[in-house]
Structures are given as structure tokens and as C-alpha cells.
């Protein structure tokens, strides 16, 4: 694997007006990492994703994605927003939504071509949602919508998937399916996923970044037996050790890979 | 009804009116679908009222300064496009200015129109025509311009259907896929502006909003995809303007107002039908 990180964040500060949201954030993401970004609500997780996408501009510090600015590298990123604000009355089918992921890969003028439709269908097949393609998007369940939005991110042929709470409000069985899917996708793509759960992460995740104004890399351990019983013996989960103090200057990533 | 068909055969002005109604309905069905789904009826209302300023200015220049080639329709197109670009730019700059700009354009357009019509001798009576429409005043030259506007609108929608859909549904995602969303949104506003111009003769400045939004909303519950909504709305709108014209002719009432009330009736009935269907 090449040594150059796919994402490099250095001394990043961000604030909404006078309200600091992120301070001194510093980390690298390497190719084919499966990173879980955890932290409390309002800690700055989604803000960090938007900075990586170039939707927000840092107040200080630098972000490099594939060695260039986030907005230049955009088309190499597949973004799945945490979306509750999509208009449920908008007349679109699952296929209409999915194929939007192809927008950057076709001329601005004219309709989507056969290649685009095939790529969208392949992405829906990859997320196990192909049979939904003609259904109105608004009629889908939460889990089905997450799968379609992941397919939309996938069909733009991204090298990195950025997912904002893909498992939010899903029941455990559907969460397991989704993690299995992400693990398959991780074979060829880097994945960076925001998660609302601060104590548990999927066993497929190889790195955990805890964002609460600052950003600290955490180690992941096997769940102790007593705890595993409490958590219904979910052997697919790993425990996050919040050993670090967020006031420390955090290490530049890789602290858990001895 | 037969009486109306008979009158249609005898009077060219009724045929022109009917044709103008259909041409305006095609534009409003297609573009109104974007206005309703993207929820920008306030912008459409603002552009409609701004159009009056352009018409007033054109009439003043034509009458007082002898610019005989300049018609009110030219002024309307100019003002609508200018308004679209102003709102598009205010929106691209962000902040809370957008809302202020929309309201200001609404009132300033009206004020400019009223002022220039006041300054133009012999034109005061026409204010009512522009505010509430007078479809029976449509002449062949206006019809040609309406046809041209329809052609432009349909061509642009055909070419930009997918980016327009993406920007209306999920603007942030569209931007991340490299779509120049501010430009596409301004293009949408230009389409809205041109559509409003086609509707001015049918229902007038004040009633435009209703004809843009009511037929689309009525068919919205029965459409699964955006283009279906466009086709159904254009068809319903054509039927409504034709029925409005026939009723107005029979009862000797203003066609614009009758058409809007018909549209409102159909909207309410469609809502009731949809509610009954859900309960059943």
C-alpha cells in the first residue's frame, strides 16, 4: 500500500461565527482504512465530514484529500448525508435518487446514458436494493433508504466513502446487514463513517476517531465478558477505550497500530 | 358548451384566447412542477409582480418616447429575466438577504409599473388588464411570442432535466457531484420568469401564482415521477383555462378570475379525493 495518506488533516480549526466547533484537529487516513468517527452530539462529527467534502472552509489549518483541496477532490468522494430533510412529497423513484450519483461523470447537457443507468443498477444490487428501483423513494423504510443513499454514493465510483450515521435509527438486525455490506465495500474503498454510538463500534472498523471539539484516536478492544452479556452478547461489536484526554494535543493518528 | 364552440368558430379573438391559454398552460405545468416541488412560490410571486415594472416602462417608452417597436411583452420578458438574475445572485451570496430581496423586488416592481403607467397619458385603464389579465386581448403577434417562449422553455427543460431535478431534490449532493448549483438554480429562475410572462395575458400579474401552483399541486398526489407531474399538470391547466374561458364567455365574467376559481375548486376536490382514498 502506498505510504501517502488519502486524507491529511493538519491543525484544523473551525467555528460557526464565534462558536468554536473544532480545534487543533490533526489526523491521517490511509487507503482502505475503515474509520469510525464517534463523539457526542454537537461534538463536531458532521462538521468534520463537511469540511472534508469542502462544503465548509476551515478557519485555520489544512485539509488535503488525495493531495489536493477537498473541493477539487470531490468527485473521488462518495457522500451519504444524514438526511431527514429530503422532501418526502418530492416525486422521485429509487432509481431517480440513485442515478444522481452519476452527475459528475457525464456531460451537463442531455439525459443520463445507458452506462449511467447500468452503474446505478449495479450500485443498487451491491447494496441489496435493486428490487426497490421503481418504488417511490418516500415509501421506503429507514433501512431501505439508507441502502439507497449508500448506493447513490457508490455509483459515482468513489475512492472514499463518507457516511454520516448510516446506521442511525436502524434495528440491530438491519445494522448487522449494513456493516456486512460496508465490510465488503471496504475491500476496495476507504470508508469513513460517523457514528452516534460512543462506546461500541463494529468489529470491521480498524480505527476510531473520537471528535469532541478536538479529535483523538482511540483504541478498540474486545468486549469483556460481563459487558458482552449486558450488550446481548453481540460478538460483532468492539469496545472503544476512551483513555485519552481531549485537552491533550492528539497524536497524528496510528496510535493503535503498534 | 355548444354555444362556446359555435362562438369559437365565429370569433378569431376566442380562438386566439384558447390557444394562448394552452400555450401558457404547457409552460406553467412544466415549470410550475419545479416551483411547487422546490417550494419557491414566493419567488414566483415576486417575479410576477416585478414584471409589471417592465411592462409599465415599455409602455411609457413606446407612448411617450415613440419606441414603437417595443411592446409590453418585451418589457415583461426584460423585467422577469432581470428579477431572476437578481434573486439568483442574492441567493448565491447566501445569508438572510434572499428573503428581503424577494419581498423588495415584489413591491418595487409594482411601484415602478404603477408609476410609469401613471406617467403615460391614456394608459391608466390598462392597469387592471395587467393586474388581472385579459386573455381576449391576445393578438397573433403575442401568440407567436408565446410559442417562442414555450419552445425555449421546453428545450431548456429537456436539456437540463437531470441537473434541475437533482438541484431541486438535494442541492448539497448535486454540488458535491460537481454540478454548478447556483448557475442551475438561476437557470430555473429564468424558466420561472419566462413562464410568468406567458401567463400574464391569461390571468394577469396578481393571479399568476395560483395558476402556477394549483394545477401542479392537484396532480402531485397522483404522480410518482417529476415528468409525470409535468405532463398531468400541463393537461389539467389547459383544461382549466379552456373551461374558464368558456364559462366566462357564457356568463360574461372576467376569464382570469373564473379560471383561478376553477383551479382552486379542482385543487380542493383532488385533496378530498386523495384523503378519501387514504382512508379507504
Mean pLDDT of chain A: 83
Reported by name, the CATH topology of chain A is Rossmann fold
How much is the average pLDDT of chain B? 90
Structural class of chain B: mainly alpha
Question: Based on the structure, what is the oligomeric state of the protein chains?
Answer: heterodimer
Distance between the termini of chain B: 35 Å
Helices and strands of chain A, in order, run as EEEHEHEHHHEHEEEEHE
CATH A-level architecture of chain B: Orthogonal Bundle
CATH architecture designation of chain A: 3-Layer(aba) Sandwich
* SSE-based structural type of chain A: alpha/beta
Rough outline of chain A: globular
- Number of structurally distinct domains of chain B: 1
Low-confidence runs of at least 5 consecutive residues of chain B: none
Which of globular, elongated, flat, extended, rod-shaped describes the shape of chain B? globular
CATH class of chain A: Alpha Beta
Helix content of chain A: 10-25%
Q: Count the E strands of chain A.
A: 11
CATH superfamily of chain A: P-loop containing nucleotide triphosphate hydrolases
What key phrases describe this protein's structure?
heterodimer; A: 258 residues; alpha/beta; Rossmann fold; eight-stranded mixed β-sheet; three-stranded antiparallel β-sheet; 11 strands; disordered C terminus; B: 280 residues; mainly alpha; ABC transporter involved in vitamin B12 uptake, BtuC; 11 helices; globular
Please tell me about this protein's structure.
The complex is a heterodimer of chains A (258) and B (280). Chain A has 258 residues and is an alpha/beta fold. Chain A has one domain: 3-Layer(aba) Sandwich (Rossmann fold). Chain A contains 7 helices and 11 strands. An 8-stranded mixed sheet of chain A has the order 5-6-7-3-9-10-11-8, with helices on both faces. In chain A, helix 4 crosses helix 5. Chain A starts with 6 loop residues before the first strand and ends in a 17-residue tail after the last strand. The C terminus of chain A is likely disordered. Chain B is an all-alpha fold. Chain B has a single domain, classed as ABC transporter involved in vitamin B12 uptake, BtuC (Orthogonal Bundle), CATH 1.10.3470.10. Helices cover 85% and strands 0% of the residues of chain B. Chain B is globular, with a radius of gyration of 19 Å. Chain B starts with a helix and ends with a helix. The interface between A and B is medium-sized, with 31 and 27 residues.
Amino acid at each position: 500500500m502506498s505510504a501517502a495518506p488519502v486524507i491529511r488533516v493538519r491543525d484544523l480549526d473551525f467555528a460557526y461565527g464565534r462558536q468554536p466547533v473544532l480545534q487543533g484537529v490533526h489526523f491521517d487516513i490511509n487507503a482502505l482504512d475503515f474509520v469510525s468517527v464517534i463523539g457526542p452530539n454537537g461534538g463536531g462529527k458532521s462538521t468534520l465530514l463537511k469540511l472534508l467534502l469542502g462544503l465548509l472552509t476551515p478557519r485555520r489549518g489544512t485539509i488535503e484529500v488525495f493531495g489536493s483541496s477537498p473541493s477539487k477532490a470531490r468527485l473521488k468522494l462518495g457522500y451519504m448525508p444524514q438526511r431527514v430533510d429530503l422532501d418526502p412529497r418530492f416525486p422521485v423513484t429509487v432509481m431517480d435518487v440513485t442515478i444522481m450519483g452519476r452527475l459528475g461523470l457525464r456531460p451537463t447537457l442531455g439525459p443520463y446514458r445507458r452506462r449511467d443507468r447500468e452503474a446505478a443498477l449495479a450500485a443498487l444490487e451491491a447494496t441489496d436494493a435493486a428490487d426497490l428501483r421503481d418504488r417511490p423513494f418516500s415509501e421506503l423504510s429507514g433501512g431501505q433508504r439508507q441502502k439507497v443513499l449508500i448506493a447513490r454514493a457508490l455509483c459515482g465510483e468513489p475512492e472514499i466513502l463518507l457516511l454520516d450515521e448510516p446506521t442511525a435509527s436502524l434495528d440491530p438486525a438491519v445494522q448487522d446487514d449494513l456493516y456486512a455490506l460496508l465490510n465488503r465495500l471496504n475491500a476496495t474503498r476507504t470508508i469513513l463513517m460517523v457514528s452516534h454510538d460512543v462506546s461500541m463500534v463494529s468489529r470491521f472498523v480498524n480505527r476510531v476517531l473520537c471528535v469532541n471539539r478536538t479529535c483523538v484516536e482511540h483504541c478498540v478492544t474486545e468486549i469483556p465478558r460481563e459487558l458482552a452479556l449486558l450488550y446481548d452478547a453481540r460478538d460483532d461489536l468492539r469496545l472503544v477505550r476512551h483513555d485519552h484526554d481531549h485537552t491533550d494535543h492528539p497524536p497524528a493518528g496510528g496510535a493503535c497500530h503498534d | 358548451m355548444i354555444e362556446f364552440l359555435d362562438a369559437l368558430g365565429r370569433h378569431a379573438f376566442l380562438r386566439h384566447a384558447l390557444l394562448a391559454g394552452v400555450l401558457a398552460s404547457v409552460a406553467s405545468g412544466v415549470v410550475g412542477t419545479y416551483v411547487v416541488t422546490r417550494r419557491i412560490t414566493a419567488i414566483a410571486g415576486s417575479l410576477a409582480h416585478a414584471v409589471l415594472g417592465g411592462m409599465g416602462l415599455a409602455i411609457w417608452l413606446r407612448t411617450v418616447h415613440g419606441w414603437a417597436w417595443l411592446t409590453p411583452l418585451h418589457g415583461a420578458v426584460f423585467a422577469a429575466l432581470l428579477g431572476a438574475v437578481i434573486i439568483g445572485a442574492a441567493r448565491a451570496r447566501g445569508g438572510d438577504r434572499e428573503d428581503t430581496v424577494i419581498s423588495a423586488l415584489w413591491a418595487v416592481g409594482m411601484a415602478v409599473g404603477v408609476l410609469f403607467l401613471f406617467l403615460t397619458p391614456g394608459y391608466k385603464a390598462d392597469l387592471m388588464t395587467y393586474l388581472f389579465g385579459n386573455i381576449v386581448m391576445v393578438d397573433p403577434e403575442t401568440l407567436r411570442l408565446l410559442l417562442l417562449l414555450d419552445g425555449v422553455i421546453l428545450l431548456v427543460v429537456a436539456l437540463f432535466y437531470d441537473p434541475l431535478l437533482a438541484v431541486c431534490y438535494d442541492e448539497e449532493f448535486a454540488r458535491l457531484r460537481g454540478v454548478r448549483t447556483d448557475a442551475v438554480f438561476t437557470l430555473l429562475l429564468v424558466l420561472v420568469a419566462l413562464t410568468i410572462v406567458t401567463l400574464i395575458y391569461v390571468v394577469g400579474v396578481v393571479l399568476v401564482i395560483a395558476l402556477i401552483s394549483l394545477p401542479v399541486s392537484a396532480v402531485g398526489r397522483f404522480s410518482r415521477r417529476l415528468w409525470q407531474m409535468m405532463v398531468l399538470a400541463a393537461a389539467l391547466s389547459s383544461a382549466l383555462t379552456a373551461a374558464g374561458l368558456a364559462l366566462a364567455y357564457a356568463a360574461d365574467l372576467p376569464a382570469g378570475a373564473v379560471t383561478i376559481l376553477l383551479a382552486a375548486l379542482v385543487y380542493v376536490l383532488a385533496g378530498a379525493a386523495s384523503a378519501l382514498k387514504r382512508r379507504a
